[in-house]
Amino acid sequence: MKVIRKVELLAIGDELLNGQRANSHLLYFGEKLQEIGLGLQRCTELRDEPAEIVEGLKRAIDGSDLILVTGGLGPTTDDYTVGCVASALERPVRRNPEVEAAIRAFFKERGKEPTENNFKQCDIVDGAEVLPNPNGTAPGQWIELNDQVIVLLPGPPLEMKPMFEDQVLPRLVDKGWALSPVNSVQIRTMGIGESKVAEMLAPLLKGSGSKLRVAYCAHLGYVDVRLSPVEGGWDEARIRTMGEACRERLGEGFLGYGTPEVAAVILQHLRGLNKSLAVAESCTGGLLASRFTDVPGASKIFMGGVVCYRNQVKENLLGVPDCILEQHGAVSAECAVAMATAVAELLESDYALSITGYAGPEGGNEPAGTIYLGYHSPVGVWSRKVVLPGNRTAVRERAVMTALDFIRRKLEKYKIYDLLESLKC
Amino acid sequence: MKVIRKVELLAIGDELLNGQRANSHLLYFGEKLQEIGLGLQRCTELRDEPAEIVEGLKRAIDGSDLILVTGGLGPTTDDYTVGCVASALERPVRRNPEVEAAIRAFFKERGKEPTENNFKQCDIVDGAEVLPNPNGTAPGQWIELNDQVIVLLPGPPLEMKPMFEDQVLPRLVDKGWALSPVNSVQIRTMGIGESKVAEMLAPLLKGSGSKLRVAYCAHLGYVDVRLSPVEGGWDEARIRTMGEACRERLGEGFLGYGTPEVAAVILQHLRGLNKSLAVAESCTGGLLASRFTDVPGASKIFMGGVVCYRNQVKENLLGVPDCILEQHGAVSAECAVAMATAVAELLESDYALSITGYAGPEGGNEPAGTIYLGYHSPVGVWSRKVVLPGNRTAVRERAVMTALDFIRRKLEKYKIYDLLESLKC
Q1: To 5 degrees, how large is the angle CA A405–CA A408–CA A413?
Q2: Do A195 and B76 touch (CB under 8 A)?
Q3: Could you give the domains of chain B?
Q4: What is the ipTM score, two decimals?
């Protein structure tokens, strides 16, 4: 029987606790460790206080098999990690000449001089294996105890991630600690609330209590449902069958297995039709376009967009008719449709999506949060009005997600007509 | 002498540890608690495992004065917080009739029916004060022990934040636990690396070791320096004087006090000149425009932008001359300048900023990460080439920050000329 190792993350830095920076490592490790069948059991964020760091380390050493420590390896005076680990393990710290040479080389390559504080990063816990850092100056450290491992990693994600993937993961596999990936099924739904999703699936999941672990997670616009195995419960095939039943039950609310981004799903759909897309947006100011350009390879489908933040731009550049702006206003169903149609013409795209509205803090003819969506396609033109809660940022984010769900559902609903239209050319 | 209370955050949910969701609460509480002079000492993320939650609670009760617990108050079967708190405190749980009525009213107002699982949220730890939730169904709970407080808050930020600000903060002030804000000075720098900033400031800060707490925090594009008081150290006036000395030392690298966003600084600058701005971007696909529209009131200055993801759009809509695209290519200094000038003309703006480049994963005539920036102003037109490391997402984010720093430094350098130009009209 395989032993599941207990894994714990200690993230060190005042900036994590005083609101200056999010602990993005937690998200990253959570995902990466799942992939190799290791679950993160606990994460603790600690301040740059040596006594608290030593206490946190001792507690982790007391209960966990693999302890990942991030941050506090930098060159500045508030970086204590190496000294604290040495103290918790009652080992000395030694200056490592290879690391010193690597730091000199790093700066030389970039035509710069290292500062004296950079050499603090040559300090290595006695007995640790150095993990070279090709993307920065702070090396990582791999410390094996009897049947435990402590790994020290630099804080900056662009240095930490390649070090973890290229150096730490292979060592974990070598040690036999990395198990096969958890055979869970993850379903992403869109446009349905969390308790509604749970209610829809309840009749299916009833009685599976001890056989299956069910977890819900609501994101902005999405609700994810994860079905995972439990010791002595259902096997992979049975979990997949249940996943298919859930998919059917969810109908149009099912976005996909895994964690697909809706923009990628839309582009995939349009790729199948060999059609192109453009966007026009005012209050969301580029966010809608950026959601599509986030998708690698988007340029085959996505033509571009117009951010018409001022009415002047809607009129002069997009060519939204003056009479629409005067009679209905810039925040109206008529204007949303005119924007979609105009941007399709201007950018020579087949499909187009538009957003206009009041993101707040102020409204206009209608209250803040009022948003109109427009959709232009070869088989028809539609608009939709929504009133979204929250502050400026929340309204903008929600408007983008609602617009993406709007076009996704239209593409789903009219797919036969879209297909027939695409065969005409 | 005032007692500084120890504050700890327990964030509960599988989704925080398996990579599904970031613990955004930590960032929020870090900032909010600073404002009232309370620092967060530690944060722990725990899975939806009752035994681990109870253990975490007991440990927190053992060492902290104020314990904030988020998550696990939802209606689904994996929500355990209330039961675990009751168990850790050895108190019973009771169904609360007022909460039940509030849940019925919440659904009625929205023309919906509550599902049976919603009523799980009526369970209250014996002796707890209910914190009503006007934005959702899960109420919060305020539990006073002898000289400690445990606060249970719902996970969704749009429910948790108003509850914390409207109900928890006033109670903390009433109890005399909320101190005056920490009188720290925060400086934001831009375009200088962290160790370079530390080196520049070292001569000033030398010898202040025991009088002042200095913390550095590198964000994408920014490095923040925070000078905070220590017990028996410098007073507020002395810290501010040191802040001014640092500002002078940092020169053009100083962005502002506090945590200003560079886009807001640029718009402020242009507002002073009474001039307008437009953007044209390809590989950043709307991110640059969205950075400006993030700023409330941006529409007075920011006209809008064009996302020209396909060359066709650069040529047909923006009117970048065919000869430039053919001779130099779409990723070139010449094209960046043409894009900036063209978008200024098209959107009738005074200033314009452009980005074109290869975000990756593939490059073109030049490797992925090669970016050209263009700047059009009444006093001159400039371009700049940068080669940025990292994957597609990192290159796009860095390209936006580099472009913003580019225009910021140009506006700073040529401000006299810009001003003279603005007086002409």
Answers
A1: 120
A2: yes
A3: 7-174 (3.40.980.10), 185-257 (3.30.70.2860), 262-424 (3.90.950.20)
A4: 0.71
